[in-house]
Amino acid sequence: EPEVTQTPSHQVTQMGQEVILRCVPISNHLYFYWYRQILGQKVEFLVSFYNNEISEKSEIFDDQFSVERPDGSNFTLKIRSTKLEDSAMYFCASSGTPGNEQFFGPGTRLTVL
Amino acid sequence: SQQGEEDPQALSIQEGENATMNCSYKTSINNLQWYRQNSGRGLVHLILIRSNEREKHSGRLRVTLDTSKKSSSLLITASRAADTASYFCATDYGNNRLAFGKGNQVVVIP
């Protein structure tokens, strides 16, 4: 069964460093998302992406964040200068059409020291 | 029950019993989705129910939706130890971004 994959599973970085989290959505899906879950808190929407541009973004998704689909399979989330409060589990998701199921990847646990 | 501001609920049951958890939301939705998360792991999609549907089944799972009360429930029948997880509802208000509840922790005792 097709699934969303994410790499790395765990990323440790120093405050102020740039990180890139990678995702491979389900191959025939066209809508891509990033969410995050700070330990013990709710899963929060960050951004949605369709047709090579951002469709929606939350107030969390500030200028430090960017997304890109650099090729036909990968979808990336970049954090330019990480802060301690960026430590969280970051989930990528994809869906075939809007209003349908969003399938999530296993997550990347980001730890900022 | 889950909603934006409530604390997560915890439920501990014996294997074989049914588990019911609830979710409420605030405004009209396009759909509501239920997910399972094992400790520290990814979100597994369980069921999507649309605003014009009242009930859906998938295996041992039954989801209901009451749009007049703005609430949904997830029933797991004949629970197993492997059902131990956190269960989240997530609402799509039509803008294609999911708003998650805080989750219900279910522990199934063998």
Concise synopsis of the structure shown:
The complex is a heterodimer of chains A (113) and B (110). By secondary structure, chain A is an all-beta fold.
Note the main attributes of this structure.
heterodimer; A: 113 residues; mainly beta; four-stranded antiparallel beta sheet; 50% strand; globular; B: 110 residues; six-stranded mixed beta sheet; disordered N terminus
Which structural class matches the secondary elements of chain A?
mainly beta
List low-confidence stretches of chain A: none
Rg measurement of chain B, Å: 13 Å
Distance between the termini of chain A: 37 Å
Main sheet properties of chain B: 6 strands, mixed
> What does the oligomeric state look like here?
heterodimer
> Which residue ranges of chain B are poorly predicted, with pLDDT under 50 across at least 5 consecutive positions?
3-7
How much is the average pLDDT of chain B? 90
Largest sheet geometry of chain A: 7 strands, mixed
Radius of gyration of chain A from the CA trace?
Answer: 13 Å
The tally of beta strands of chain B, per DSSP, is: 10
**Proportion of β residues of chain A?**
over 45%
Describe the fold and architecture.
- The complex is a heterodimer of chains A (113) and B (110).
- Chain A has 113 residues and is mainly β.
- Helices cover 0% and strands 50% of the residues of chain A.
- Chain A is built from no helices and 11 strands.
- In chain A, strands 2, 4, 5, 6, 9, 10 and 11 form a 7-stranded mixed sheet that branches. Chain A has a 4-stranded antiparallel sheet with strand order 1-3-8-7, with no helix packed on it.
- Chain A starts with a strand and ends with a strand.
- The model of chain A has no long low-confidence stretch (mean pLDDT 95).
- Helix content of chain B is 0%, strand content 55%.
- In chain B, a hairpin with a 5-residue loop joins strand 8 (85-92) and strand 9 (98-100).
- Chain B contains no helices and 10 strands.
- The two termini of chain B are 25 Å apart.
- The chains are: A mainly beta (113), B mainly beta (110).
